[in-house]
Inverse folding.
């Protein structure tokens, strides 16, 4: 097989993998922001953490997949009508204990919909990890392409 054909196949597969990988990362990084953008009239407020529950991950012995540990954070807040609301979310690390304040946003048109501020910041903090992952994918691909060209 011609070296140029090998090179073009490798570059095409690498480009396709890169496009798929970038699409997945963009979807993950913008997940919470997309939830926030659905709020018709967002209101920023402070809530109180009611409880933080640690959940130990486990093994899926059939597939060999180990689920990571996480926390379930339950918080409450008062909406603009004075009604007390409670919500919860899963988080990869402990963000506080019961009684601590937590910044959050809720939709004044639909007050039971809320999102914690730390969830919105998550995607912004993920981009540097994306750049490292892209480098890990691209650098070996470039070396393989150069090696096969010789």
């Amino acid at each position: 097989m011609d070296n140029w054909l090998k090179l073009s196949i490798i570059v095409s597969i690498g480009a396709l993998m890169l496009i798929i990988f970038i699409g997945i990362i963009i979807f993950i990084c913008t997940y919470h922001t997309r939830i926030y953008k659905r709020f018709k009239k967002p209101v920023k407020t402070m809530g109180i953490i009611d409880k933080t529950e640690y959940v130990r991950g486990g093994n899926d012995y059939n597939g060999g997949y180990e689920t990571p540990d996480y926390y379930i954070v339950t918080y409450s807040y008062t909406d603009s009508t004075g009604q007390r609301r409670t919500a919860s979310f899963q988080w990869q690390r402990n963000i506080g204990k019961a009684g601590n304040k937590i910044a959050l946003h809720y939709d004044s048109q639909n007050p039971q919909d809320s999102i914690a501020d730390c969830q919105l910041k998550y995607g912004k903090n993920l981009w540097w990890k994306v750049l490292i992952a892209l480098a890990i994918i691209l650098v070996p691909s470039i070396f393989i392409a150069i090696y096969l060209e010789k």
About this structure: The first strand starts at residue 42 and ends at 55.
